[in-house]
Design brief:
Blueprint (H helix, E strand, L loop, with lengths): L8 H17 L32 H9 L7 E7 L2 E6 L7 E3 L6 E8 L5 E5 L2 E5 L4 E7 L4 E3 L2 E3 L5 E3 L2 E7 L4 E7 L3 E2 L8 E2 L5 E5 L2 E6 L3 E6 L7 E5 L6 E5 L13 E9 L10 H10 L4 E8 L5 E2 L1 H7 L12 E8 L6 E5 L21 H8 L5 E5 L9 H5 L11 H6 L5 E6 L8 H11 L5 E5 L2 E2 L16 E5 L6 H9 L3 E4 L3 E6 L7 E4 L4 E9 L5 E6 L2 E7 L2 E7 L4 E9 L10 E5 L2 E5 L7 H21 L5 H20 L3
Helix pairs in contact: 8-10, 10-11
Length: 655
């Protein structure tokens, strides 16, 4: 009998199957259209990853995409007419210190500039490399490697070092980073060797012991975005255990104000270099003090839906480690790469449809139809990572029709009331003024009531990748909850739009005392008082925006303005900041949901925004006809009928 509530039998069987896939296929887990997944740990997304095409020689494509760069964790063997040389950035130093005997794993990119084919042999296994070609190999420092019979010595990539132990104690679960010279990370025994999107090693826990070299070691500790970073450096002695008591300082306490932060888009397993179990998710949520965690079941590139078994077991129930201040649920991600992805939190039962448009499947049923089936009384739906860069026109939304997860159907689903919010913050929009925020404000200005959301798309089965290997909650949506925290109370707060999305700053907005998601019913002619306030060392600038643009802005942490109201509208607040250790990928950003200003019973419906959405619908119509994979005229008609229904909604708002 299974007594571990974190490992029911069907989940354990699924994890065993995933381990077999990892063993047989490596990091791709046998997802054939995504061979480049094995290269994801070394690619920046979206800048480098989107340059990768699926040409037959993926290894050479990877080499060319790196353009001479050697990311951390990769070694490059350059073959030239002048001989060969070994390049690496394993430790920003000459060799990796090793405190226990045994070979060190190395991922090796063999890069040939030779005008003729060459054979590379690793432990007796030959690999042919074409003229000017490349090959990505998994080897160790003990591998016998030859290039056309000439031996290449890999042992210099590591050096022995005397060992000591650290005991780390904060008094509560935290995220720890332990590094020696050159940025080499150190981890407790059995902990995955994770690195975040700033290339910092990390693990979660409290009162943990780990082996380190007897040389200066830097320890950093934090606990998600409500805490600062504490740091110290020690020099442990050979064979001894050094106790390090270190705890992060709290910057703000959201729960004390009735606000709770969530990451609505986290994958436990999605291919990757390890298989993640529920205990990994528990450690991450508690170590990040993430109030709400939505672990989504979803596919990669084919029919297999990862973590479906966990969803089937726990749907509608809190996961076992949930407590009064932390709620974890299994959710689902519906995926279509042409029209966009949707995540669902609070589902009571597994869905009938998880994905469309993959492999030989048709792009049918339309997103709106699937969203309609996913809508449950207590579930909330949000568009995931809908736009990947600056957006200034509907043409930027439609793009060139590539299947790149762009949320092209969002304009329909918002008008028809099929989704509750939009990820204003997500992993693939790095600009200081995210394109998704621009589209979000257009949709709100056109009369759609949508909550500002956030989801990281963190994948716990990846230990190293520019974005997805970071801890859950490095971007969050905070929601103001009535009463105690629960999945139901949080979902209700999201549905009501009582949210803001943030990379770290706390952001408040009031309009005549009302906050995000609330509505002022006005007669017209009144002047309302607006106040925006932010907390966080990374905040540099605040904006108050209306449907017409920026109402007020300024440096610092607080700004106020007076707004004369003649027509229906809305107000949002936005906070900006530059590089800071708490700001992921070099920027700080926060964006509230709107406070709505209704005038004489009318909602906002700004003509410019409505016509922007109508143009978007025109382009979506063209895209469906030209690019959608559809089997029958009836399937095409299903798409076009929904577009026409959305068009009628927007046109009615012009009256």
């Amino acid at each position: 009998m299974n007594h571990d509530p974190m490992m029911p039998p069907q989940v354990e069987r699924a994890l065993r199957e995933y381990r077999a896939l990892l063993s047989a296929h490596g990091i791709t887990w046998g997802e054939p259209p995504l061979g480049y997944v094995r290269m994801m740990p070394f690619l920046r997304f979206p800048e480098q990853a989107e340059r990768m095409t699926l040409r037959p020689d993926l290894d050479a494509e990877f080499r060319d995409t790196l353009d001479g760069e050697v990311p951390r964790g990769l070694a490059a063997l350059r073959l030239t007419t002048d001989g060969h040389r070994l390049e690496h950035r394993l430790d920003h130093g000459p060799a990796r210190p090793v405190v226990s005997p045994g070979p060190v794993p190395v991922i090796l990119l063999v890069d040939s500039a030779l005008p003729h084919p060459v054979e590379v042999t690793a432990d007796g296994v030959p690999y042919g490399i074409t003229a000017g070609g490349a090959r990505l190999l998994d080897v160790t420092t003990a591998t016998t490697l030859t290039v056309d019979g000439e031996v290449v010595d890999l042992s210099g990539l590591a050096r022995p070092a005397p060992a000591a132990r650290l005991r780390l104690r904060a008094g509560f679960p935290c995220r720890w980073s332990v590094t020696s010279a050159g940025g080499q990370g150190w981890y407790p025994e059995g902990a995955p060797e994770r690195r975040d999107n700033d290339d910092q090693p990390f693990f979660h826990g409290d009162d943990v012991v780990l082996a380190v070299p007897c040389e200066p070691v830097t320890i950093r500790v934090t606990r998600g975005m409500e805490y600062d970073i504490a740091e110290t450096t020690v020099v442990p002695r050979t064979g001894e255990e050094t106790l390090v008591g270190l705890a992060p300082h709290r910057l703000y306490d959201a729960a004390a104000r009735g606000w709770y932060g969530a990451d609505l888009h986290v994958h436990m397993n999605w291919a990757g270099d390890l298989v993640a179990a529920p205990a990994e998710a528990a450690a991450a949520q508690l170590g990040e003090d993430l109030h709400v965690l939505n672990l989504v079941a979803g596919n990669v590139a084919g029919a297999r839906v990862y973590d479906r078994e966990a969803l089937q077991h726990w749907a509608g129930r809190d996961l076992p480690w949930s407590d009064a201040g932390h709620v974890a649920r299994m959710g689902v991600e519906y995926r279509n790469d042409l029209f966009g992805h949707v995540h669902v939190f609070g589902v009571a039962a597994p869905p009938a449809v998880y994905h469309t448009g993959f492999g030989a499947d048709a792009d049918w049923p339309p997103n709106a139809a699937v969203c309609g089936d996913l809508r449950e009384p207590r579930a909330v739906l949000g568009y995931a990572h809908p736009f990947h860069g600056p957006v200034s026109s509907p043409e930027d939304v439609a793009g060139d029709g590539r299947r790149n997860c762009t949320g092209r159907a969002l304009v329909v689903d918002a008008a028809l009331g099929m989704v509750d919010g939009v990820e204003v913050l997500h992993f693939s929009d790095r600009s200081s003024a995210p394109g998704t925020a621009e589209v979000y404000r257009r949709l709100v200005g056109a009369g759609n009531r949508l909550a500002a959301l956030a989801g990281t798309d963190t994948m716990l089965s990846f230990t190293r990748q520019d974005t997805v290997s970071s801890p859950p909650g490095w971007e969050r949506v905070y929601a103001r909850v009535d009463g105690p925290l629960s999945a139901e109370s949080f979902a209700e707060a999201v549905r009501r739009g009582r949210t803001f999305a943030t990379t770290g700053p706390w952001l408040e907005l009031t309009v005549d005392g009302l906050g995000p998601g609330e509505t002022l019913d006005l007669a017209g002619g009144e002047t309302v008082a607006v106040r925006a306030r932010a907390v966080g060392p990374e905040v540099e600038h605040i904006e108050i925006r209306t449907a017409g643009g920026v109402l007020a802005e300024g440096p610092g942490h607080e700004i106020t303005a007076s707004l004369p109201v003649t027509d229906a509208g809305y107000v949002v607040a936005v906070a900006h900041g530059g590089p800071h250790p708490r700001a992921p990928r070099g920027r700080a950003y926060a964006h509230t949901s709107p406070v709505y200003l209704d005038v004489r019973g009318r909602h906002v419906a700004r003509e410019e925004d409505v016509r922007w959405c109508l143009r978007w619908l025109d382009l979506l119509d063209e895209l469906v006809r030209a690019r959608a994979r559809l089997r029958t005229r009836a399937q095409l008609r299903d798409h076009l009928d929904l577009i026409e229904k959305a068009r009628a909604v927007y046109e009615s708002r012009l009256c």
